[in-house]
Design a protein that fits this description.
CATH class: Alpha Beta
Order of helices and strands: HEEEHEHEHEEEEH
Helix content: 25-40%
Radius of gyration: 16 Å
Number of helices: 5
CATH topology: Glutaredoxin
Length: 176
């Protein structure tokens, strides 16, 4: 009984504190800082690898947690629509490549997950939550040139993929 009550409360409190401590220093219109991180595939990926297409760079707190699983599964379910809009989805958290591989396998995820174990990129993007030693749930949409065109500083994992699709539709209409 106690566990059923406190576990959801802890998740809510973790989410609220993560949002409260976000200090995003990047702004719409700026070039997204380049980086190199290892992916769940074991290969090194640079942000610049995604130039020429929109990139949905989403930072999330931790593999296998309820909100992160919901968000990742929704991106998985909507990946075809997102790709048809000319975008690549890339998730970043401070977990290891091994953790990302297990997370992808368990949920059949089809998005690239990058491991920022040394927390360099989450700090660079201003999404690091030092109190909890993880990334805040923040998403950046980058245009094909690598410029930030949208920032979601507060993400609801249940509807976020839909929000991203709506924004990409708007952006691709502007581009046409």
């Amino acid at each position: 009984m106690i566990r059923k009550f406190f576990a959801p409360m802890l998740i809510v409190l973790l989410g609220l504190s993560a949002v409260a401590s976000a200090k995003i220093t990047l702004r719409v219109g700026e070039m997204a800082p380049n980086f190199a991180l290892r992916g769940n595939d074991g290969k090194w990926h640079h942000l610049s690898d995604f130039r020429g297409q929109f990139a949905v760079l989403y930072f999330y707190p931790k593999d296998e947690t309820p909100g992160c699983t919901t968000e990742a599964c929704n991106f998985r379910n909507d990946i075809t629509t997102i790709e048809k809009l000319g975008a690549k989805v890339v998730g970043v958290s401070v977990q290891t490549v091994k953790s990302h591989k297990a997370f992808r396998k368990r949920y059949g995820l089809n998005v690239l997950l990058l491991a920022d174990s040394n927390k360099k990129v989450v700090r660079m993007y201003g999404v690091y939550n030092a109190k909890w030693q993880m990334a805040n749930r923040v998403t950046f949409i980058l245009n094909p040139k690598g410029q930030i065109v949208k920032i979601y500083p507060k993400v609801d994992p249940k509807i976020h993929a839909e929000q991203v699709i709506a924004e990409l539709k708007t952006l691709t209409r502007k581009k046409a």
